[in-house]
Amino acid sequence: MSRAGDDTHRHLKDNKKRKESSKRWLERQLNDPYVKRAKEEGWRSRAAFKLIELDDRFHLVKGANRVVDLGIAPGGWSQVVRKRAPKAKVVGIDYLETEPIDGVTIFQMDFMDEAAPAALEEALGGPADLIMSDMAANTVGHKQTDHLRTMALVEAAAWFAVENLVEGGAFIAKGFAGGTDKDLLVLLKSHFRTVKHAKPPASRKGSSEWFVVAQGFKGRKDEDGKSAQINGG
């Protein structure tokens, strides 16, 4: 077979795999009770139930005054915050377009853009009580590479939390099992009083995703090692 013939054969196989994958995804969506509930209850995605279940367990949202939603699209997590803490100022960011949400300031830009942190900080108007990250890198099909890319995003979100949380604040982020989260845990344990992993019931059993929940931010330190935290109003 010619090289052109090899390429055609490979493309046909790739298309078949994509069609099979799409079919499995559609079947899973149609049979997923969380997808049905999300439509019935007005949530933008089934991911809303993950935050609801995590909040029921860890009490992250109630009483929050300022909340940052990293990777906000399509908006399910911010919907939950608006319902459970209606007076909170909520700021979200995503490179994907997100339909407006009442009471939420949304930036359509990449969180890794060097201008993104300053834009979020200015819109928030003070240190956050809660920083949430549901970000995940676009997959390239190589499991280890995809994992490393997503964990790099999670670590960037964690550093943003360390620089922008009020003392006592919380950070929650989605990650994926893969054994390369040691640096992330070291970072979080050095800045938060408690750090736990959780997999809410709404997270599909076959998924490798997990959530890290860090609570009780200890506050930033100045050059002399003294607390430099400014409490939010």
How would you characterize the overall build of this protein?
- It is an enzyme of class 2 (transferase).
- It is found in: Cytoplasm.
- One of its GO terms (molecular function) is rRNA (uridine-2'-O-)-methyltransferase activity.
- Specifically methylates the uridine in position 2552 of 23S rRNA at the 2'-O position of the ribose in the fully assembled 50S ribosomal subunit.
- With 233 residues, this protein is α/β, with parallel strands linked by helices.
- The protein folds into two domains: 31 residues; 173 residues, Vaccinia Virus protein VP39 (Rossmann fold, 3-Layer(aba) Sandwich), CATH 3.40.50.150.
- It is built from seven helices and seven strands.
- It has a seven-stranded mixed beta sheet with strand order 3-2-1-4-5-7-6, with helices on both faces.
- Helix 3 packs across helix 4.
- The C terminus is likely disordered.
